[in-house]
UniProtKB/TrEMBL annotation:
It is an enzyme of class 3 (hydrolase). This is glycerophosphodiester phosphodiesterase. The keyword Hydrolase applies. The lineage of its organism: Bacteria, Bacillati, Actinomycetota, Actinomycetes, Geodermatophilales. It comes from Blastococcus carthaginiensis. Residues 49-375 form the GP-PDE domain.
């Protein structure tokens, strides 16, 4: 029996024995949406350890461009990861946030100067240009730029070359590369700011379901995950009959914005307890924690001892896909840095291997090639 099959059998046995008892304030319905049917073995929740190309291969190309996604797949990523937001005309496009001055050339476009504005997004004021103020046709006139030019100067070579892709285009790319590479390339979609978009009449869930259905990747066997830092939209997707597996993103601080909006005092820390994970298992198939929630950093800059998160999540029947693995020193634990510069590569493989050994089921990485090498090393050495 493979590792994940053993896990599935174990957690199924344990899950029935553990009560659902996370305290839920009266204002929030305590009943979870019915859990989607478990995927068949060897399908969407494959037995394999997954490498997810975070925003594509964003260590090498401007993030959330077709070029970034394609490179990730060619480097061996199992899944490519589009974050999605809405345009004014309700089309889902791939951006990490709806404010686009950091990842496009919009600020240099005089024709859009008057669109610069200040909004409150998830409770915080933000000034810039927002996707929901652009039709798709207008957005298509913009070009992507590198978000982190100081760390990833090489990526600026590609500034100005690529458009902001629609989710439809990402799904088409997925299908094309699946055929060409003769292996299934998955899509790991994240809905960004779902409560905010609901509030301005541009709900993300319905177009997402339509796009998946039209691309014929809407079944529980489809190579798709849907992830969110909020909770209500994931429950809503389950209630609307979405069959692909759902993943609850977690964070080392704060609370889901839908909790904030509903006056629910619970935090991500509450969701990360053993009881919280049992609650999540009522509507999701996995969790995506910040990597420090899996293995915290010690004061001396080394990686510390694993928390109980992985074991607790597995006991609840949840996969664990932490974020975000990156090769550059600035993102690594100080003890694994190498060289003097923030953008020098450090000992990322050591970090990766420590996390595989901690029992994670997959990882989000800006450097999918490194992720694949680390997984190969881990699987070669694993007993
Ligand atoms: O979705 C996993 C990871 O991408 C979450 O962080 O902020 O990069 O979307 P973020
Ligand atoms: Ca994401």
């Amino acid at each position: 029996m493979s590792r994940a099959r053993r896990l599935r059998a174990t957690v199924a046995a344990v899950a029935v024995a553990v009560p659902l008892s996370l305290a839920v304030p009266a204002a929030v319905p305590a009943t979870a949406a019915p859990r989607p049917p478990a995927p068949e073995p060897g399908t969407a929740l494959a037995d394999d350890l997954l490498v997810v190309g975070h925003r594509g291969a964003s260590g090498y190309r401007p993030e959330h461009t077709l070029a970034s996604y394609e490179l990730a797949a060619r480097m061996g990523a199992d899944y490519i990861e589009p974050d999605v937001v809405s345009t004014e005309d309700g089309v889902l496009v791939a951006r990490h946030e709806n404010e686009i001055s950091g990842t496009t050339d919009v600020a240099s476009r005089p024709e859009f100067a008057s669109r610069r504005t200040t909004k409150v997004i998830d409770g915080a004021p933000l000034t810039g240009w927002f996707t929901e103020d652009f039709t798709l046709a207008e957005l298509r006139t913009l070009r992507a730029v590198e978000r982190l030019p100081e760390v990833r100067e090489e990526n600026t070579l590609y500034d100005g070359l690529y458009q902001v892709p629609t989710l439809d285009e990402v799904l088409e790319l997925r299908a094309r590369l699946t055929k060409e590479l003769r292996r299934e390339i998955g899509v790991y979609v994240e809905t960004k700011h779902p409560t905010y978009f609901d509030g301005i009449g541009l709900s993300l869930e319905e177009p997402l379901m339509t796009d998946l259905r039209e691309a014929r990747v809407h079944k529980h066997t489809s190579p798709v995950f849907i992830q969110s830092f909020e909770t209500a939209n994931l429950r809503e997707l389950g209630e609307k009959g979405v069959r692909v597996p759902l993943v609850q993103l977690l964070s080392g601080s704060g609370q889901p914005y839908d909790f904030t909006a509903a006056g629910d005092p619970r935090t991500y820390a509450d969701l990360t307890t053993a009881e919280g994970l049992q609650e999540i298992a009522g509507y999701a198939e996995g969790v995506g924690p910040e990597k420090n929630q899996v293995i915290p950093r010690e004061a001396d800059g080394t990686l510390g001892t694993s928390t109980t998160l992985v074991d607790d999540a597995h006991r609840a029947g949840l996969l664990v896909h932490p974020y975000t693995f990156r090769n550059e020193n600035v993102f690594l634990p100080p003890a694994l840095r190498d060289g003097a510069e923030a953008d020098d590569y450090g000992r990322a493989l050591e970090e990766h291997l420590t996390f595989w050994e901690a029992g994670i089921d997959g990882m989000f990485t800006d450097n999918p090639d490194t992720g694949v090498v680390s997984r190969d090393l881990f699987e070669t050495d694993a007993p």
